[in-house]
Amino acid sequence: MVIEQGKVVSIDYTLKNSNGEVLDSSEGREPLPYLHGAGNIIPGLEAALDGKSAGDQVNAVIEPEQAYGLRDDNQIGKVARTDLAGVGEISVGTQLQAQTPEGPRVVVVTAMDEESVTIDANHPLAGETLHFDVKVSDIREATPEELEHGHAHDGSGGCSH
Ligand code: ZN
To answer: The pTM is what?
Structure first.
Protein backbone atom coordinates (compact mmCIF):
# COMPACT_ATOMS: atom_id res chain seq x y z
CA MET A 1 0.00 0.00 0.00
CA VAL A 2 1.32 3.43 -0.86
CA ILE A 3 0.29 6.85 0.37
CA GLU A 4 -2.46 8.32 -1.79
CA GLN A 5 -5.72 10.19 -1.43
CA GLY A 6 -8.09 8.58 1.05
CA LYS A 7 -5.46 6.73 3.10
CA VAL A 8 -4.91 7.34 6.79
CA VAL A 9 -1.17 7.72 7.31
CA SER A 10 0.66 7.67 10.64
CA ILE A 11 3.99 9.47 10.75
CA ASP A 12 6.83 9.94 13.20
CA TYR A 13 8.27 13.36 12.54
CA THR A 14 10.72 15.99 13.65
CA LEU A 15 10.28 19.55 12.44
CA LYS A 16 13.21 21.95 12.47
CA ASN A 17 13.67 25.49 11.24
CA SER A 18 16.57 26.61 9.03
CA ASN A 19 18.77 27.07 12.11
CA GLY A 20 18.33 23.43 13.06
CA GLU A 21 16.18 24.21 16.09
CA VAL A 22 13.53 21.58 16.79
CA LEU A 23 10.09 23.23 16.58
CA ASP A 24 7.95 20.13 16.98
CA SER A 25 8.41 16.40 17.18
CA SER A 26 6.38 13.26 17.69
CA GLU A 27 9.22 11.76 19.72
CA GLY A 28 7.90 10.19 22.91
CA ARG A 29 4.37 10.23 21.52
CA GLU A 30 2.31 7.98 19.30
CA PRO A 31 2.83 8.58 15.56
CA LEU A 32 0.58 11.32 14.23
CA PRO A 33 -2.29 10.03 12.09
CA TYR A 34 -3.71 12.20 9.30
CA LEU A 35 -6.00 11.74 6.32
CA HIS A 36 -3.98 12.08 3.12
CA GLY A 37 -5.36 14.42 0.47
CA ALA A 38 -7.63 16.29 2.85
CA GLY A 39 -5.41 19.25 3.68
CA ASN A 40 -4.83 18.04 7.27
CA ILE A 41 -1.12 18.80 6.96
CA ILE A 42 0.76 21.49 5.06
CA PRO A 43 0.73 21.10 1.24
CA GLY A 44 4.51 20.66 0.92
CA LEU A 45 4.61 17.77 3.36
CA GLU A 46 1.59 16.10 1.81
CA ALA A 47 3.30 16.30 -1.62
CA ALA A 48 6.57 14.91 -0.22
CA LEU A 49 4.76 11.90 1.27
CA ASP A 50 2.64 11.10 -1.78
CA GLY A 51 3.45 7.63 -3.13
CA LYS A 52 5.61 6.60 -0.16
CA SER A 53 5.30 3.27 1.67
CA ALA A 54 5.31 2.22 5.32
CA GLY A 55 8.86 2.28 6.67
CA ASP A 56 10.03 4.96 4.22
CA GLN A 57 12.10 7.86 5.54
CA VAL A 58 11.37 11.23 4.00
CA ASN A 59 13.50 14.34 4.42
CA ALA A 60 11.67 17.36 3.07
CA VAL A 61 12.70 21.01 2.93
CA ILE A 62 9.53 23.02 2.49
CA GLU A 63 9.46 26.65 1.45
CA PRO A 64 7.02 29.00 3.23
CA GLU A 65 4.68 29.12 0.21
CA GLN A 66 4.11 25.36 0.63
CA ALA A 67 4.00 25.57 4.42
CA TYR A 68 2.38 28.35 6.46
CA GLY A 69 2.77 31.13 3.93
CA LEU A 70 4.86 34.26 3.89
CA ARG A 71 4.70 36.81 6.67
CA ASP A 72 2.28 39.58 5.81
CA ASP A 73 2.72 42.99 7.43
CA ASN A 74 -0.97 43.67 6.80
CA GLN A 75 -1.67 40.97 9.39
CA ILE A 76 -0.06 43.12 12.06
CA GLY A 77 -2.14 45.88 13.59
CA LYS A 78 -2.65 48.07 16.62
CA VAL A 79 -5.81 48.12 18.66
CA ALA A 80 -6.72 50.39 21.53
CA ARG A 81 -6.38 48.83 24.96
CA THR A 82 -9.93 49.88 25.68
CA ASP A 83 -11.07 47.61 22.81
CA LEU A 84 -9.59 44.69 24.68
CA ALA A 85 -11.24 45.47 28.01
CA GLY A 86 -12.88 42.32 29.21
CA VAL A 87 -10.35 40.03 27.53
CA GLY A 88 -8.49 39.61 30.81
CA GLU A 89 -4.80 39.82 31.58
CA ILE A 90 -2.72 40.28 28.46
CA SER A 91 0.99 40.68 27.97
CA VAL A 92 3.49 40.27 25.15
CA GLY A 93 3.14 36.70 23.94
CA THR A 94 -0.49 36.30 24.96
CA GLN A 95 -2.55 34.49 22.35
CA LEU A 96 -6.05 35.76 21.68
CA GLN A 97 -8.90 34.40 19.64
CA ALA A 98 -10.00 37.07 17.16
CA GLN A 99 -13.13 37.14 15.04
CA THR A 100 -12.32 37.95 11.43
CA PRO A 101 -14.35 37.87 8.21
CA GLU A 102 -12.64 34.51 7.50
CA GLY A 103 -13.70 33.11 10.87
CA PRO A 104 -11.98 32.82 14.24
CA ARG A 105 -8.20 32.86 14.27
CA VAL A 106 -5.44 33.00 16.83
CA VAL A 107 -3.48 36.24 17.08
CA VAL A 108 -0.54 36.97 19.32
CA VAL A 109 0.28 40.14 21.25
CA THR A 110 3.71 41.34 20.07
CA ALA A 111 3.97 44.76 21.75
CA MET A 112 2.10 46.98 24.17
CA ASP A 113 2.20 50.56 25.35
CA GLU A 114 0.00 52.75 27.54
CA GLU A 115 -2.79 53.11 25.01
CA SER A 116 -2.43 50.38 22.44
CA VAL A 117 -1.72 46.74 21.87
CA THR A 118 0.01 45.40 18.74
CA ILE A 119 -1.34 42.10 17.56
CA ASP A 120 0.03 39.81 14.86
CA ALA A 121 -2.33 37.47 13.02
CA ASN A 122 0.42 35.75 11.04
CA HIS A 123 0.84 32.05 11.74
CA PRO A 124 3.81 31.61 14.11
CA LEU A 125 5.59 29.62 11.38
CA ALA A 126 4.75 32.03 8.53
CA GLY A 127 7.89 32.89 6.55
CA GLU A 128 9.80 29.87 7.88
CA THR A 129 11.38 27.26 5.64
CA LEU A 130 10.57 24.00 7.36
CA HIS A 131 12.81 20.95 7.54
CA PHE A 132 10.89 17.74 8.16
CA ASP A 133 12.40 14.35 8.98
CA VAL A 134 9.54 11.91 8.63
CA LYS A 135 9.23 8.15 8.99
CA VAL A 136 6.08 6.58 7.60
CA SER A 137 4.84 4.37 10.42
CA ASP A 138 1.58 3.01 9.06
CA ILE A 139 -0.82 3.32 6.13
CA ARG A 140 -4.42 2.10 6.14
CA GLU A 141 -7.67 2.70 4.31
CA ALA A 142 -9.74 5.51 5.77
CA THR A 143 -13.15 4.55 7.14
CA PRO A 144 -16.25 6.03 5.47
CA GLU A 145 -16.73 8.16 8.58
CA GLU A 146 -13.19 9.54 8.35
CA LEU A 147 -13.67 10.37 4.67
CA GLU A 148 -16.93 12.10 5.50
CA HIS A 149 -15.33 14.11 8.32
CA GLY A 150 -12.18 14.88 6.34
CA HIS A 151 -9.78 13.81 9.09
CA ALA A 152 -8.32 10.74 10.78
CA HIS A 153 -9.81 9.26 13.93
CA ASP A 154 -7.61 7.66 16.55
CA GLY A 155 -7.87 3.98 17.45
CA SER A 156 -10.44 4.61 20.17
CA GLY A 157 -12.90 5.90 17.57
CA GLY A 158 -13.00 9.23 19.30
CA CYS A 159 -13.91 12.30 17.32
CA SER A 160 -14.15 15.74 18.83
CA HIS A 161 -16.04 17.25 15.90
ZN1 ZN B 1 -14.35 13.04 12.88
So the answer is: 0.80
